[in-house]
Write a structure and sequence with these properties.
Shape: rod-shaped
Radius of gyration: 37 Å
Helix content: over 70%
Strand content: under 5%
Structural class: mainly alpha
Number of domains: 1
Number of helices: 2
Oligomer: single chain
């Protein structure tokens, strides 16, 4: 009886298994592609975050420098009778140290 044709229920089982394999393989392939894309995007995002952190640090340094220059200018623009000479010397010394 090994040559007997499979029953309808056996054919249905086989058909379901065969047709179910391709969608599963396709889904797994798509998952692999998505994982690769996610990994690539994570690398890009991490690189961009690093770049932005560097730019923020540069902005902080520039803002500090600008504040120091503003302090010098404010002291220099005061009329002589209102100017604190010691403060002016201190502000200029601080500015010169940062140059």
């Amino acid at each position: 009886m090994t040559d007997a044709a499979p029953s309808q229920s056996e054919q249905a089982k086989d058909h379901g298994t065969k047709t179910g394999v391709k969608p599963v393989q396709k889904a797994l392939s798509e998952v692999r592609l998505l994982r690769k894309r996610i990994t690539q995007l994570e690398r890009q995002m991490n690189a961009r975050v690093t770049q932005l952190e560097q730019e923020v640090q540069e902005c902080r340094q520039l803002n500090k420098r600008l504040a120091e220059i503003a302090d010098v200018v404010a002291e220099v623009l005061l009329p002589a009778e209102h100017r604190d000479e010691q403060r002016l010397r201190d502000v200029l010394a601080d500015y010169e140290r940062t140059i």
